Amino acid sequence: KEIICGMIFNPITNEMFYAEKGKGAYLNNSRIRVSSRKNIDECVLLTGGPILSYKNKEIFFKEYESVSKKVAATRKFGSSALDLAYLASGRCDGVWERNLNYWDIAAGIIIVKEAGGTVTDFKGGDKYIEDRNLLATNSKIDKDLIALLA
């Protein structure tokens, strides 16, 4: 079970993000790469958030407070797929989110990896699909973000 390609389309901006394993990540036919920021305090991070039925809202608010105190900005746009596409194109530096479905993130995972980013679970491992908790970064701030979420 391996993701070999993915595509995310934003109809509002007419942007098509896509990647194929080993061939790089693209936005409307132009190669994209993750950002190069190394200092977490200069970074912009994206996250999702609890929905009405989410039972552990206090975990989200604790994480949001912990992270937002240490970074330049945090944002919530409402689409896990687009959050990952924005990470891949360097528009932000990291994404963290809990309680995800595979179909929400599958395309974004390969796009981030092909753009030079890192995708892990909240402990730095590879159980993000099974645990449904994803942490993705520009590959320079992953350890810092994991520490903030611990």
Brief description of this entry?
With 150 residues, this protein is of the alpha+beta class. It has a single domain, classed as D-Maltodextrin-Binding Protein, domain 2, CATH 3.40.190. It contains five helices and nine strands.
CATH topology assignment = D-Maltodextrin-Binding Protein, domain 2
CATH class term:
Alpha Beta
Count of the domains? 1
Query: Measured on Cα atoms, how large is the radius of gyration?
Result: 14 Å
> In terms of per-residue confidence, which ranges show pLDDT below 50 for 5 or more consecutive residues?
none
CATH architectural group? 3-Layer(aba) Sandwich
- Main beta sheet: 5 strands, mixed
Order of helices and strands: EEEEEHEHEHEHEH
Portion of residues in helices? 25-40%
Sheet-strand content, in percent, reads 15-25%
Global shape = globular
- Briefly note the structural class of the backbone: alpha+beta
Mean pLDDT: 94
Strand order of the largest sheet: 6-5-7-9-8
What does this structure look like?
With 150 residues, the protein is of the alpha+beta class. The chain has one domain (5-33, 42-48, 58-149): D-Maltodextrin-Binding Protein, domain 2, CATH 3.40.190. It is 31% helix and 23% strand. It contains five helices and nine strands; from the N terminus they run E-E-E-E-E-H-E-H-E-H-E-H-E-H. The protein has helices spanning 57-68, 80-88, 102-114, 128-131, 142-149, and strands spanning 5-10, 15-20, 25-27, 30-31, 44-47, 73-75, 94-97, 118-120, 134-137. A five-stranded mixed beta sheet has the order 6-5-7-9-8, with helices on both faces. Strands 1-2-3-4 form a four-stranded antiparallel beta sheet, with helices on one face. A hairpin with a 4-residue loop joins strand 2 (15-20) and strand 3 (25-27). Helix 2 (80-88) runs parallel beside helix 3. It is globular, with a radius of gyration of 14 Å. The N and C termini lie far apart (29 Å). The mean pLDDT is 94.
